[in-house]
Amino acid sequence: MPKNRPLRRHPALIPYSREHHPMLVLAQLLKAGSPPYRGLPTDAPGKRDYALGEFRRLIQGHLEREERVLLPLAREHAPALRELTERVRREHEQLRAQLEALPTVPEAELPAALDALGRLLESHIRFEERQWFQQLQAYEAFVDALGKE
């Protein structure tokens, strides 16, 4: 298989994968040294406010759906992936904690906090896409149960 060939995603997981794209854009925006994105904020307070808006608009619901649907199905139908599934849960907690702390971060510390959040968000999404989803979809019972949700 060619090195840069996209991973095929099981149709039942595609809606979750699609939600990851705007979250990856946010991750890039938040990281230190990111190039300007047309129509998106360039200063730290603007990036913070944008991140909080995206948290309310997209990320919070995405995390809740994964926790309500994917994590329980993974525990039941892919128990061999317990450690990977637990990592997803832990990283969700870390993401929430960092996002919820943003309003109280002093402005001088905001660029570093945004960079840390961007790196965690990117790492988390890449982990889900390249490892967790890839391995989950190999469990027929998991994808069958997900398809019935």
Record the SSE blueprint.
Layout (H helix, E strand, L loop, with lengths): L13 H17 L13 H34 L4 H20 L8 H27 L3 H8 L2
Tell me what you see in this structure.
The protein has 149 residues and is mainly alpha-helical. The protein has one domain. The chain contains five helices and no strands. The chain has helices spanning 14-30, 44-77, 82-101, 110-136, 140-147. Helix 2 (44-77) crosses helix 5 and helix 3 (82-101) packs antiparallel against helix 4 (110-136). The radius of gyration is 16 Å and the shape is elongated. The chain starts with 13 loop residues before the first helix and ends with a helix. The model has no long low-confidence stretch (mean pLDDT 93).
What's the gist of this structure?
The chain has 5 helices and no strands. It has 149 residues and is mostly helical.
Average of pLDDT: 93
Low-confidence stretches: none
H and E order:
HHHHH
Percent helix range: over 70%
Counting DSSP E segments of at least 2 residues, the number of strands comes to: 0
How much of the residues is beta strand, in percent?
under 5%
The domain count comes to: 1
